[in-house]
């Protein structure tokens, strides 16, 4: 790595994950304009988010394996290139089906980009303290991107049109690709075998079916046949996947990685974080536009302070506390911020008070998400061996999107059916998720079944 500017590499990887994280949330406040242009119902336009998240989450494990097999630089460039192409295609779409197609493929690009970017960071930064600081910077960009999405999406939609929610990615991605191509080391020949595609398909089918069940339970009586079919598919595909992972000499995912305490705890925390923050984004958009009656542009400007706080925390607070506090302490403070934010949102609804609404968003998106994502990332990767960094990074994000995909339909069960009316029940669920996360964080050991590819084996 002689002559390599590691800080520049970190900046490029972080910008890649920032754009990817931004795109998850940025569409929310643009959806009303998209509905208006294409004459859609909310049920149809919601697919823009759900299918993107599902595609992203379902292919992350394969994305991590491709990163390990083909090389982190190649897969990073592939993923960024696909993201660039689909951003351009989505922004220039003239029909909803075309937009939906590019949005789905964009999720595939994100599934390649993210684990490769994470693997790049952990490859170039090897010394423990240096790696922790680099992961903190990288994770903070992801958190800032997620927190900025609602604000940026509302402002761009109002002043430039919804197309620019996607087109804004293009010049940034061109710069990222150019610098990555010339500055990163070429990938060395990998000793890993080609990923097990049948296992990947089984994993995707199981996750899609499981997520679909959470959507159907909103009306279990009418949807009982669909729920039963999905349950059968989940059982069959999971059984096939488990059998194949146990038998393959080089499985898609070494089950022994779950023998690591950090992996078990970190991924469970990411599931809860995904459910919490995806639910927050949905509820916050609904609160600001429906309950408090702000336009998309007004909502964007209203949420801008959250982004500023997130940037300040990432820029000035994280570099200090990452050297003074353990990852568990950082994550615990983050979840305390999430809990405080949820309480503020409950008060905002009960009192119809804008100050509490802004305080809730500041604690959750400005402080809590940045600290939680950083702390959880370090916790999850503490014990992962270098040869499994790609898969380890993709596991945490798969867990995050499993939480988001399953959590959002559950939140809607607690909402009032009348348009524009929201009660405190779904926000109370946010507070409960935060408390459960704090409890798990501070348990000395996480008691879960230990899986391994062979009896008694652990990853090495």
Layout of helices and strands, plus pairs?
Elements: H1 6-26, H2 31-38, H3 42-45, H4 47-58, H5 60-70, H6 72-91, H7 96-124, H8 128-160, H9 164-167, H10 169-183, H11 197-216, H12 224-247, H13 261-291, H14 296-324, H15 327-351, H16 354-381, H17 389-413, H18 425-441
Helix pairs in contact: 1-7, 1-8, 1-10, 4-7, 4-17, 5-6, 5-7, 5-17, 6-7, 6-10, 7-8, 7-17, 8-14, 8-16, 11-12, 11-17, 13-16, 13-17, 13-18, 14-16, 15-16, 15-18
Descriptive notes:
By secondary structure, the protein is mostly helical. The chain folds into two domains: 371 residues, Growth Hormone, Chain: A, CATH 1.20.1250.20; 56 residues. The chain has 18 helices and no strands. α13 runs antiparallel to α18. The longest helix has 33 residues. One of its GO terms (molecular function) is transmembrane transporter activity. Its main location: membrane. This is MFS transporter. Keywords: Membrane, Transmembrane, Transmembrane helix, Transport.
């Amino acid at each position: 790595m002689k002559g390599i500017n590691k800080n520049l590499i970190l900046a490029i990887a972080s910008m890649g994950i920032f754009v990817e994280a931004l795109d998850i949330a940025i569409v929310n406040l643009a959806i009303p304009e998209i509905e208006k242009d294409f004459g859609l119902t909310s049920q149809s336009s919601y697919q823009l988010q759900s299918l993107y998240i599902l595609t992203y989450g379902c292919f992350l494990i394969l994305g991590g394996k491709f990163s390990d097999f083909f090389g982190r630089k190649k897969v990073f460039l592939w993923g960024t290139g696909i993201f660039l192409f689909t951003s351009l295609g989505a922004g220039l779409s003239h029909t909803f089906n075309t937009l939906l197609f590019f949005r789905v493929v964009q999720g595939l690009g994100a599934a390649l980009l993210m684990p490769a970017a994470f693997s790049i960071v952990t490859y170039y930064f090897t010394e423990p303290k240096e790696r922790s600081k680099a992961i903190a910077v990288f994770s903070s960009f992801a958190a800032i991107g997620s927190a900025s999405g609602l604000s940026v999406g509302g402002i761009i939609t109002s002043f430039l049109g919804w197309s620019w929610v996607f087109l804004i990615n293009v010049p940034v991605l061109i710069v990222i690709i150019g610098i990555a191509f010339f500055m990163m080391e070429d990938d060395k020949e990998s000793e890993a075998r080609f990923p097990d595609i049948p296992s990947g398909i089984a994993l995707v089918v199981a996750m899609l079916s499981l997520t679909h069940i959470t959507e159907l339970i909103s009306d279990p009586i009418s949807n009982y046949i669909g729920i039963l079919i999905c349950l059968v598919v989940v059982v069959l595909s999971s059984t096939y996947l488990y059998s194949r992972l146990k038998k393959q000499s080089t499985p898609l995912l070494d089950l022994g990685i779950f023998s690591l305490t950090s992996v078990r705890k970190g991924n469970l925390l990411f599931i809860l974080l995904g459910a919490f923050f995806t639910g927050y984004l949905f509820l916050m958009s609904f609160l600001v536009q429906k309950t408090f009656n702000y336009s998309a542009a007004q909502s964007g400007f209203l949420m801008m302070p959250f982004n500023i706080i997130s940037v300040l925390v990432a820029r000035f607070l994280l570099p200090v506390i990452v050297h003074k506090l353990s990852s568990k302490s950082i994550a615990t403070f983050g979840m305390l911020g999430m809990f405080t934010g949820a309480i503020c949102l409950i008060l905002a609804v009960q009192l119809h008070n804008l100050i509490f609404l802004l305080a809730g968003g500041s604690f959750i998106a400005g402080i809590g998400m940045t600290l939680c994502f950083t702390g959880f990332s370090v916790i999850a990767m503490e014990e992962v061996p270098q040869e499994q960094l790609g898969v380890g990074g993709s596991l945490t994000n798969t867990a995050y999107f499993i939480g988001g995909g399953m959590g959002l339909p559950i939140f809607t069960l607690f909402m009032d059916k009348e348009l524009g009316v929201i009660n405190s029940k779904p926000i109370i669920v946010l507070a409960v998720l935060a408390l459960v996360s704090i409890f798990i964080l501070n348990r000395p050991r996480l008691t879960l079944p230990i899986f391994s590819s062979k009896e008694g084996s652990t990853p090495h």
